[in-house]
């Protein structure tokens, strides 16, 4: 952690870490991945010299490497960076690296947990840099530090840091059943715990109470924080997961159909059955993928 912090503050040390580090490539924010076991993917960690030769063979002079952004540090203490090669031909880069550019929405659940997290973080940082080239206060260009942990306005010295939007996601229970809803944009059959963006100035508990009231017209109690994760879609969210209850006497839903297509109470048996069907479906997909790769 201290090493990473030092790299954020020391441009020269960051350049040297880049030359000895691992680099993950993206093309217009789409990560370069490799198929590993059938139906799963892994990220592709390239060395500085490997990326240099990919860039040269793709007709670039290599100066693009300076655009790499620090994303973390491996267990072997090697700094990890990401780089968007959007100006190059994706097919040529993919061929050079024996990989393939795959939309993160498709690959996210097929990457191992730590890799999914790293690739999502990299995409989020790359996106933040791409959309913050100018200062919102002065309209002037901003410049990044070597690590890419901040951007500074060239005329006012205002410092900008990468942003996330806090989101609450809550599993509401009435003691016997849990409440799930779906938006019309969800894949067919997919239901999820209720979620929503926190408003400015809200506490976690206030955001949970408001979102549930807005979406299904219930007043929740006993809000308990459970866990958190970075959520890359559609932009960078910081998901805070909670449990909450309603009394069974006050569990009548009044769904806001502008926000949700449907919301329902589900019993434990229904959830278990749905998870089993999902598991069988995933296994069949993996089997099919094994067959097509033969
Ligand atoms: N069950 C779920 O809904 C799940 C949601 N998520 C994630 O949680 C996040 C929030 O869920 P969702 O239900 O869509 O949120 P909300 O219930 O808050 O509804 C989304 C609407 O909120 C408005 N909004 C307010 N603040 C923001 C902001 N910072 N960024 C974008 N829109 C904002 C937008 O309205 P307008 O466009 O009218 O301005 C948007 O259409 C999303 O990132 C989603 O991917 C993850 C898993 C499950
Ligand atoms: Mg919502």
From TrEMBL:
<keyword id="KW-0378">Hydrolase</keyword>
<dbReference type="InterPro" id="IPR015375">
    <property type="entry name" value="NADH_PPase-like_N"/>
</dbReference>
<keyword id="KW-0520">NAD</keyword>
<dbReference type="InterPro" id="IPR015797">
    <property type="entry name" value="NUDIX_hydrolase-like_dom_sf"/>
</dbReference>
<keyword id="KW-0460">Magnesium</keyword>
<dbReference type="InterPro" id="IPR000086">
    <property type="entry name" value="NUDIX_hydrolase_dom"/>
</dbReference>
<dbReference type="InterPro" id="IPR020084">
    <property type="entry name" value="NUDIX_hydrolase_CS"/>
</dbReference>
<dbReference type="Pfam" id="PF00293">
    <property type="entry name" value="NUDIX"/>
</dbReference>
<dbReference type="InterPro" id="IPR049734">
    <property type="entry name" value="NudC-like_C"/>
</dbReference>
<feature type="domain" description="Nudix hydrolase">
    <location>
        <begin position="162"/>
        <end position="288"/>
    </location>
</feature>
<protein>
    <recommendedName>
        <fullName>NAD(+) diphosphatase</fullName>
        <ecNumber>3.6.1.22</ecNumber>
    </recommendedName>
</protein>
<keyword id="KW-0479">Metal-binding</keyword>
<dbReference type="Pfam" id="PF09296">
    <property type="entry name" value="NUDIX-like"/>
</dbReference>
